Fold this sequence. Notes:
By secondary structure, the protein is α+β, with helices and mostly antiparallel strands. It contains twelve helices and ten strands.
Amino acid sequence: MLSERRLQVLRAIVQDYVGTEEPVGSKALTERHNLGVSPATVRNDMAALEDEGYIAQPHTSAGRIPTDKGYRLFVDKLAGVKPMSPPERRAIQNFLEGAVDLDDVVARTVRLLAQLTRQVAVVQYPSLTRSTVRHVELLSLAPARLMLVLITDTGRVEQRLVDCPAPFGEASLADLRARLNSRVAGRRFTDVPGLVEDLAEAFEPEDRGAVSTVLSTLLETLVEDNEERLMIGGTANLTRFGHDFPLVIRPVLEALEEQVVLLKLLGEAKDPGVTVRIGHENAHEGLNSTSVVSVGYGSGGEAVAKLGVVGPTRMDYPGTMGAVRAVARYVGQILAES
């Protein structure tokens, strides 16, 4: 265990390196921070921190920089989440409240996160499997062709064309719409298959084929494998950090193009708290020089998806964690009110 003074020295090194982009020396630390000890003592503390792997000397200068291990300890023990100021909170709220639908909410969230943090922003669409049915609409397009519209509690809208085996009359369509919504509206997606399994039997024999086709399309929509959708923005922000990436920025950009990689980075939506993964804690080799700050968002206190940012390990962790958490809270409120 590090002493409280050495933790203070580590905190000061992280803060200075993030702020100045320059390796930090003992003289600068004693001048900028009220550590209450001599430069010689600070040098001894820095030597101990280096021996234990929390800081490193990038070249022959006297300065030190934090390692992944040092940033990890900083985040776990030393970094409070920086609260957003009232003007910042109002700006977030006003920007997101202007959204007209779920796609707009996600697009605005990506832009806002990228601007607030000056990092790469990633927002996952609310997952169907963690959603609740708000309404199922059925529209007649032709005697044997329907449009099924599924609306979720998060505002997500899925549309499917349904080709029925025989013409399906308006009266039967209205009956199916009413019966379907009475069973599934307000229910979790995972409950829907059991709720509709005997619904076709309630209809006349000549309509059962069409009803079964509609129900099959509905169930396929609920369990689609490609439901995990993401939006990403702010990749140009990475070019400001060229010197933070040890080789070239290309591996980072290539990793960010892979949706599966990004989904793994964000982690499971069921974990609603702020998660920080630093450097080599990211399994993908192309992202070993980055940190990922993510958090779950949703309505009613339950996370239905995740959002976050990707940037260099030399990151303003308290500010980034505060921004990500604040934006997630407002997105959740908007979904709950939509």
